[in-house]
Amino acid sequence: MRLDKLLAHAGLGTRRQVKKMIQAGTVEIDQEVIKDPAFQVDPKLVDITCEGQAVHYQQYYYLMLNKPAGIVSATEDHYYETVIDWVAADYSHVDLFPVGRLDRDTTGLLLLTNHGQLAHQLLSPKQEIGKVYRAWVQGRVEANVITAFADGIDLGDFITLPAQLSIINYDPAQDRTYIEVEIYEGKFHQVKRMFSAFDHQVVTLQRIQMGPIVLDPNLALGQYRPLKPEEMQQLKPFGLIE
C-alpha cells in the first residue's frame, strides 16, 4: 500500500495533507525517514511513526450504533442527516456504510462498517439472518396474530418467512401492546406491513438484535462504539476480518 494512502486511511489527514507531511520528513518507517508518498509499505511488517507518534493502521472498521429517530440509514441524503453524518466527527476518514437499513423513525441496533463482504453475508437472503425488534403496537394483539406470523403472511408482493412473535405487555389505558418479533428478511417497512395486515399500527419500533449481535443496553440512544472482541468473534463465520 502507498504510504500516503495508509496515513490518510489512519486518519492523519487528507491525501494532500499527508503528502506534505511525508515530504517534510515527519514520517519514519522502522526509524528511517521516508519522504516518498508513493513508498510501498505493509503496515503489518513495519513500525510507522509520524511526528514521533506511532501510527496504527486498521483496514476494517465495525461499529455498533444505537440509531436515534430522525436520521436515515444511508451514506448521503439531500434532505436528512444520515447515520454516516452522525459518526463523521470520529470516522470521517473511513468510508463507512450501514449494514442494511432502518426506517427514519425506527431506532436501535445498526451496524456500520467498511467491509463489503461482511455486509453482503449479513444481508444475503440465503443466510436468513434473524432480526429482533420490539414495538408498541396499537390495539390488543391476539393469539391469531401470533399464529399468522408463525405461518407466514401474504403481503401481496411476497409471503413472509415464519416469524416469532411474542407479547410482552398490554397497556389498557392506551390500548396498545408491547411485543417482540424476530423476522428473517429485511423488506421495506416489513414489520409495519405485517401488523398492518391485522389492522394494528406500529407506534414505535426498535431493533435490538441482528444475527448474533445484540444492542448494548449501556449504549444510549445516539451513541456508538466499535464492536467488542467477543462480538467480532461472533461475526467471524460471516467473513469478519480483524
Automatic annotation (TrEMBL):
Q: What class of enzyme is it?
A: isomerase
| GO terms for MF | RNA binding; rRNA pseudouridine synthase activity
Q: Which GO terms describe its biological process?
A: enzyme-directed rRNA pseudouridine synthesis
Q: Which InterPro entries match?
A: PsdUridine_s_RsuA/RluB/E/F_cat, PsdUridine_synth_cat_dom_sf, PsdUridine_synth_RsuA/RluA, PsdUridine_synth_RsuA/RluB/E/F, PsdUridine_synth_RsuA/RluB_CS, RsuA_PseudoU_synthase, S4_RNA-bd, S4_RNA-bd_sf
| UniProt keywords, alphabetically | Isomerase, RNA-binding
Write down the PROSITE patterns for this protein, in alphabetical order: PSI_RSU (PS01149), S4 (PS50889)
Question: Ranges for the RNA-binding S4 domain?
Answer: 1-69
GO cellular component terms listed in the entry, alphabetical order: cytosol
The record's listing under SUPFAM superfamilies reads: Alpha-L RNA-binding motif, Pseudouridine synthase
Enzyme Commission code = 5.4.99.-
Does the record's keyword annotation contain Ribosomal protein? no
Family that this chain belongs to: Belongs to the pseudouridine synthase RsuA family.
NCBIfam families named in the record: pseudouridine synthase
What protein am I looking at? Answer: Pseudouridine synthase
Give the organism the record lists.
Ignavigranum ruoffiae
Q: What is the lineage of its organism?
A: Bacteria, Bacillati, Bacillota, Bacilli, Lactobacillales
